[in-house]
Amino acid sequence: MKARVSILMLTAAVICSLGASHSVRGLQTPREHLTEQEVELVKEAQILDKRIAVFIKAADRRIEVITGAAPSTSKQAKKEAELWGPLPTGTRGELMGDISRIFDEAITNIDDVSSRDDKNPLIPIALRNLAAAVSRIVGQLKPLEGQFSGDSETSSFDQLIDNAESIVQAASKLPPPVEKKGKGGKGKAQN
Q: What is the rounded CA–CA span in Å between residue 43 and residue 32?
């Protein structure tokens, strides 16, 4: 009887430890949505519109991988690789998830600047640039929607669309750009 109880207790301990180790594996650190070089470029871009441009370029790099589009020349690819590092890797679902989180981080950056200085003239410029890029990127991904395989790709795409809609909606609430007269009396739109 004692042996049977000991075996049951040992079996229970093994099952508990397997469950615990499985839970630890399930709590792996999430995938980074930016490469190390992209993180450095974000840190270097201290001005809002420049930082948003880095986020847009990072999202575009993931679109290049997803769609299979490559930079136009090998010279251009080499120059980009020196500055931005190698193109990101991952499944289509992971890359779309990266884009979604990049959009989210861009929104957070705009919100942070807005909370400190809601009259900052770079906010509408950055938001309009981001909205234009988001619309273009969603337009590139929409034709692939029928090819998505599995819940991961579908949920990543849905989250990306949600973030994109938030950005476009926020940009649509901006007042129209103010015309500034330049040299020769010609007006130039100011965001």
A: 15
pTM of the model: 0.76
In the block, which residue shows the tokens 């779309």?
96
The pair of three-digit structure tokens given for residue 190, joined into one six-digit string: 């100011």
Q: 49-54 contacts: CB < 8 A, separation 24 or more?
A: 49/122, 49/125, 49/126, 49/129, 51/109, 51/126, 52/106, 52/109, 52/110, 52/126, 52/129, 52/130, 53/129
One digit per residue, pLDDT tens: the chain, 191 residues?
Answer: 444 433 434 334 434 443 443 444 445 567 899 989 999 999 999 999 999 999 999 999 999 999 887 666 678 778 888 889 888 999 999 999 999 999 999 999 999 999 999 899 999 999 999 999 999 999 999 898 888 888 888 888 889 899 899 999 999 999 888 776 666 555 555 55
Segment holding 83, helix H or strand E = helix 74-84
